[in-house]
Amino acid sequence: MDTRMEEIVNAIEHNKLTAYDSFRFHCTQCGKCCINREDILLTPLDLFRIANELKLSLKEFIGQYCELYIGPDSHFPLIRLKPRGPVKRCPLLKNRRCSVHKAKPAMCAMFPIGRVIAFPEDETSSDAPVIEYFYMNPGCGNNTGHKRYANGLILLVFRLMIASSLNG
Question: Which pLDDT score is estimated for 48?
Answer without folding.
Answer: 94
